[in-house]
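Quick one:
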Amino acid sequence: YPCTYIGCGKVFTKPYNLKSHIKIHSTERPYKCQYCKARFTRGHDLNRHTRLHTGVKPFECQKCKKRFSRSDALSRHIKVSIKK
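Output:
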């Protein structure tokens, strides 16, 4: 399921992933941060952004107990830790 927006080039294996992605190309940004002026097309993106303000770190490394605000940061940490 390819994104048809010019210059995007993203391809998705599931139609609902494409549907979610297409929202980033929209100018409509209904999700507003309560701490700053940032606005988002998807609620998930607002939630991730809000953790920057609140300091909430829900993702924990089971090996060293270090915590992260984003799951991708935890994934990178785990990959680097495995190489050591």
